[in-house]
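Shipment paperwork, digital attachment
Item: protein structure file
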Amino acid sequence: MLDLAIVGGRAVLPSGVEDADIGIEGGQIAIIARHGQLPTARKTIVAAGQIVMPGAIDVHFHCRAPAHPARGDFATETRAAAAGGVTTVFEMPIAKPGCATPEIFRARRALGEASVYVNFALFGAPGLLDRDYILGMADEGAIAFKVFTHAAPPQREDEFLGICLPNEGDLYEAFRLIKETGLRCTVHSENNNLLEHLTAQMQGQGRMDMPAHTASRSPLVESLAV
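Attachment content:
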């Protein structure tokens, strides 16, 4: 007997959108069948007239709580995710402090576990270049690591703890240590020197408008970092 049957809907499948019923066991899709062909189930959801699609995974999620709860906490942001069909989120390590040690990682995970409405995982910040910290975060369940190639924004250094590595030697060492974990490292690629140069130009012109942000980050800023 199935745990759940979703019947009568139009399912989004690799081959396209088709009439299909979905059978769930143990939280996973077990059977995809023509309408009326599923075994019996403990619970049935009738999805007639509805599109049935897999839950989306948001691999770039931010939660500013507890330091800035007005910007959203794990409950509000994952409720919004669920409402939009996102069933898993991966949180970036920008927090207060940045998620750069196993201790901070555990506290961050506990904060999420207490209030999330969807599945979640955490990125770690490897920039303190401590092997025990990096391996420790991997052991605690980090999904991956994240670095920026530019310096931390002024007055926000604590939020970006262990994330910003504008020095190429430090970046190399972070990659070398992360390799031991077998996990991926995602990179926010912006050349620090050129970014600071163009930002100073905008400030020198008294530019505080929204397009000035884009002008300070020309495609060349990214290309150089890549």
